[in-house]
Amino acid sequence: MKEKLSDLYAKDGTKTVLASVLSILIGLAMGSLIILVVGLANPNLGISGAWDGIRLTFAGIFSTGRDAAGALTFGFNSTNLGNMLFRATPLILTGLSVAVAFKTGLFNIGAPGQYLMGTAATLVIALSIPSGTMPGVMVWLLAFLGGTLAGALWGCIPGLVKAFLNINEVLACIMTNWIAANLVTWIFDGSKFRNLVENTKSGYIYKTTYALTQVDGVWTYVDGKGVSTAKMGLDKIFPGSQVNGGILIAIAIAILIYILMSKTTLGYQLKACGANRHAARYAGIADRRNIVLSMAIAGALSGAAAALYYLSSNTEFFWSTYQSLPATGFNGIPVALLAASNPIAVIFTGCFMSMLDIVGLQLTNLTAYNEYITDVIIAIIVYLSAFSLMIKLFLTGRKKRRAQAPVSESGGAQGAPAPEDGTRQEGGGQA
Amino acid sequence: MEADNIIEMLHITKEFPGIVANDDITLQLRRGEIHALLGENGAGKSTLMSVLFGLYQPEAGQIRKNGQVVKIQNPNDATALGIGMVHQHFKLIDVFTVLDNIILGAETTKLGFLQKKAAREKVQALSERYGLKVDLDAKVEDITVGMQQRVEILKMLYRDNEILIFDEPTAVLTPQEIEELMETMKSFAKEGKSILFISHKLNEIMAVADRVTVLRKGKCVGTIQTKDTDKQALSNMMVGRPVQLEVQKTPAKPGKTVLEVQGLRVVDRIHKRDAVRDVSFNVREGEIVCIAGIDGNGQSELVYGLTGLERVSAGTVKLCGQDISRATIHHRSGNMSHIPEDRHKHGLVLDFTLEQNMVLQRFREKRFQNAGFINKGAVRSYTQALIRQYDVRSGQGPVTVVRSMSGGNQQKAIIARELDRENPLIVAVQPTRGLDVGAIEYIHQQLVEERDKGRGVLLVSLELDEVMSLSDRILVMYGGEIVGELDPKKTTVEELGLYMAGAKRMTKGGRAQ
């Protein structure tokens, strides 16, 4: 009996994974097709250019440039891999943010807003503490926690509105996204955090490596006095890349979220409220508190994503965000969908999505294609991942038909899936 | 003899993981007869009908129509063969009008445009001919459940079906509507249509069916003429052992008061008026107090107020001497078990497994958690014990997703969970609704047993038989008030009916007026 059960579990899990892998493969195949068509239509590219493009689409992460003869070469590329991990860090966290909400029956489309609030809090804290007032680790920690907390508070708003006024969280999230965009622009507009040291970068905020320092009695921002995330030895494994310890923190958080959701009473309550709010209430679980709490956790994860991204000090923040929302927030949705909201799987789908980014760069650098081709691939995969449930059903249906094909007197039906409408499973059921 | 049968299902076998839902079942439906399919929850009735309707493919067996073997791959094949089905849960689109729902999938079109006028006339004609009153232009979400069922029936008639399947059609209807449905079914049969009537209500089967096929645990027990049998014999066939249709119990020995309600008022959330008006009563240890009444007279709101699902606007509720009128649900559930009216909305998290549902209130207890981490082993063994003790049947034991269980077993799971918490007060709201005789007998026994253990039971029921046979005291609710307190041994169904209809009431002193 026990073996049968684990078998069934494995089957369902396998189907989920297969569905995601299939969406990815179809996305890559469609991308290849587009590359082929574009290549054939463009005399500069031709069939050989298209072939290069297709090879890069599938294996761009292992691309090592071109050899003397101009042929593509492949091999271990520490820069690509390291950059992939660096870019995966915020994606894993926003993916978790969306996945946690999904698991508790909520759709967190507010990740971009939470991410922005996290960004603002992180940068304001990191840049407000004059150098020398406390150890760098403390500054880093305060900035990280501040960003996370800001995301959590921003996530609370749609949660509160949903719990107490029963207003759909999607609407509230979209509104809080734009409020965040304008709020952040307003906070930084005219602030002392705008990068005035490097004239060309006045549209940006200082990186966190800058800190207020007294030079000849005047407080100015000086590079190198601030903080950035420790490399934790990853720069030794992936030399020449932007990777830092943030990816390890993101993976640790993913594991913590997995434990929280599947092993603890808190996760049990959150899931119960998500699956059936009325039953949770009936059982004495505080449904309102739990809705707010799951949105807060989701927001905290998005805030943490922003904190790790900007504390890496690899990138500067363009502060005038009032008419654009950060794509990292939205990309959390496909990351969560492809992972079927499993926190551990989010680690891998996050890495996969950032790999596509790298592939896009490789295409731009090594061929006449531009990186937007990978946006097309991502778009296709996003569509397919939304359909991944359908693909899963399709896989189920195939198995069912195969099992039914040899209708014999003995009639084996090991492949038949559990019927989705349980009232029929045992027949005659009153539901 | 052969030519008599319009549909034959021969040696049908259908399996699901962990269960054989149909095991070599043969069913023959004659032209112009009403053929009942009787069986407990989980006996395989719905599965068999789903096979006939093309929703499932059997592993073995064949279906014949008029003696010809037919293959029914999907509901479209079934419709083409003239088979129509009214599902237990209606398959209607809420935001469409009645007419749109009826013609959906069988629209008459001209150049791709709908020809609704002709359709309307046809539906109207059918509606008048069979006395199936519907409002063709109303949206389905705005009409009553009874009318929704008439829409489903008209859908079948509109498609000129000659074989009509009714899957538990009376479960959702009021007594008057059931009466009407029975008449409609008889008139169909008179016109030569053949009817398969799935039910586990013996009264209805005896009243309307010509023949009955009885299923038990996926197997066919036999087919008999209703005129050659009676209710007792049928229920014995269905359950497989002699069944007690009457509740066996000794006189109650009430002890001290468990629940004391004083001047309770609860506001109806939708209509913003008092649904419960100044209600006072008490429940003592070792007695079953039954709230009787016609649906919608404030019983649901009374229970919401007692259990904390709704705020009380005035009055006090004392449980074991403690005022709980403002207490949280969590606090109340420490002394109160609640078998809710709506088992899908309140009773269960359908997408959770059985074991997750079994600890819905208790997961915080020390034995089920350790520093915030759920003790899965303890939850599993606890669930296994409950499954054994209360005979909850499911495909995969503790890890079965509750949604996939039959209604009767879902209810048993709730009852197991609530009774095992061993609280001094049990609030049971329509605990046997939609269940078969075997399960009803079992639940009644359990409630009597709990009473004999010294617990107070507050039962809310709409079924007069249940009220009369199970309760030790009857409180009748009408218009949000308690209009009478009766002793089931000294009253009659007729008198009870008068109170329920509001034709008779007692003064506060307890005298009939």
Structure description:
- The complex is a heterodimer of chains A (431) and B (513).
- By secondary structure, chain A is mainly alpha-helical.
- Chain A folds into two domains: 1-76 and 368-400, no CATH class; 90-355, ABC transporter involved in vitamin B12 uptake, BtuC.
- Helix content of chain A is 65%, strand content 5%.
- Chain A has helices at residues 2-41, 46-59, 78-103, 111-128, 136-165, 169-188, 234-237, 246-263, 265-275, 277-282, 287-311, 327-338, 343-366, 372-386, 388-404, and strands spanning 63-66, 72-74, 204-205, 210-215, 218-223, 317-318.
- In chain A, the strands form three sheets. Chain A has a two-stranded antiparallel ribbon with strand order 1-2. Chain A has a two-stranded antiparallel ribbon with strand order 3-6.
- Chain B is built from 17 helices and 24 strands.
- In chain B, the strands form six sheets. In chain B, strands 6-9-10-3-11-12 form a six-stranded mixed β-sheet, sandwiched between helices. Chain B has a six-stranded mixed β-sheet with strand order 18-21-22-15-23-24, with helices on both faces.
- In chain B, a hairpin with a 2-residue loop joins strand 11 (211-216) and strand 12 (219-225).
- In chain B, helix 13 packs across helix 14 (407-420).
- The longest helix of chain B has 16 residues, at 175-190.
- At the A-B interface, helix 1, helix 9 and helix 10 of A face strand 1, strand 2, helix 1, helix 10 and helix 11 of B.
Descriptors:
heterodimer, A: 431 residues, mainly alpha, ABC transporter involved in vitamin B12 uptake, BtuC, 2 domains, two-stranded antiparallel ribbon, two-stranded antiparallel sheet, globular, disordered C terminus, B: 513 residues, alpha/beta, Rossmann fold, six-stranded mixed beta sheet, 17 helices
